[in-house]
Amino acid sequence: MQIDKDRFLNILFISPSILAVFIFVYAFIGWSARVSFSKWKGLTADYTWNSINNYLEIFADPRFHVDIRNTLIFTGVFVIGSILLGFLLAVMLDQGLKGEGFFRSLFLFPMAISYIVTGVVWRWLMNPAMTGSRVTGFNILFQNLGLDFLANTWYNTPIWGMASIALAAIWQMSGYTMALYLAGLRSIPQELREAAQIDGANELQIYRHIMLPLLAPVTLSALIILGHMSLKVFDLIVAVAGKQLPLDVPAIYMWQVTFDGLFYGKGAAIGMILLISVAVLIIPYIRYTLKTEAQQ
Amino acid sequence: MRTKFRLSKRWLYIPLTLMAVFYLLPMYVMLATGFKRFEEIDLKTMWALPKGIAFINYIEAWTKLSPSLLNSFMMVIPAALISSALGSLNGFILAKWKFRGADVIFPLILFGMFIPYQSILIPLVQFMNALGLTGLPGLTLAHIIYGIPITTLTFRNYYASLPQELLEAAKMDGADMLGIYRYILLPISLPSFVVVLIWQFTSAWNDFLFAVVLTGNTEWPITVALNNMAGSQIIAWNVQMAGSLLAALPTLLVYIFLGRYFLRGLLAGSLKG
Hints:
The complex is a heterodimer. Chain A is mostly helical. Chain A is 73% helix and 0% strand.
């Protein structure tokens, strides 16, 4: 009796959530997929079959090639930068210095702020003007410090402009990788360190040969989480650069094609391409995480 | 040998302080510019301290942005509360009741927190329009539902970490599932609720994508309003900086006072409960 009643209550309470997630995630993905194979253009839905033509069009579109290049540059700079910086910060904070908590909070606070705020502020910091009365932001700071050679055109730089937006993203997210690494370092037993010290290993060797291999799962998490974030990057670029073509990414392309251009079929196809690229990273990661969890 | 080692560590304050300056620079510009008087606004002197404290920029930003700030609060508070409550119930059921198919359903729910929302955006807008749930109510609903995966995960991890005996004892005493949840788990769930509420508050407050496709200009939350303000040529950049601070302040205050819980939510988001 009791068991039946509990079972009934369990189903009663969990099914609305499962149903909601099922509709809003899986049914909507299916719906998007269907739209991506349609000729839908304009405000009224049109599900006329269009085979894979939307996908072919996208892959042939030079704008999408720019998007792929930009995503690769952004991902490379952002992921490598955040991981290196986060790791260095974590190692420094792991030394038991006074004021550790203060620095830790300071390095993490940008995480609490929206990409929009970050973008609005960094747009001024990275103002591309290099000469004349409009020079401001980092460029004028470099001038005042006598570091003129560092002044550059930031996000207006051809091809590499994306890297400077990645810099703002590093500012925002490196605290996150620091927190991941710090949690990882704290979970390594102290005895291991002491044993290595007794064996005559210096601090550098300990990090290189003991900590780094033990932190491999953390690095993997960071790679995947940051990697999938950079595939989805959207708000930050909108706030820094608006909808400039040289700084386009798939998420902005999708947004513009769909809601400004009303090419729903094509927009849905971009969404599906994004989904597949994220799924390739995330599905193995979820499986791996749940498997390690089950083993513990 | 030992003292030498200790001494060498003190050098770490140099790189740490430099990094602290790097993290604070944008905040400095935001604050200093926001307090400058109109005459002081010159691109050349961006880094200079304000000559006095003027509030006109904040007042102007406030008059422009206060309706959107209010919209954000009206959307974020119910979204955070409801998705946390649902997450707690789901987490409890998934952690303590191993029904058939649970190990299929749980990863399927988890995947929902990683998807690029571009892949559901068109159906979402169509669906909300069809239901007549446009504007803030629709946006709130979207945040509740897309928040379910992470709130469920956080609570499931917490409840799974509790000793099974706790529940067995209550069952022996004749408590049913609701009784166990209400009298045993709920009272010790407060820290997890704080973690999840902060997380949901922050992510709904900071969201831009859902907001920009689901709301029109009278219902814009702060992120959309700020972005549009920053994009317009007529609004002076000192007002933009003041507006940015207003937009960041609620989540910053939460972070300053409850940072510890914020960090735990962050780690949960990478599946590392």
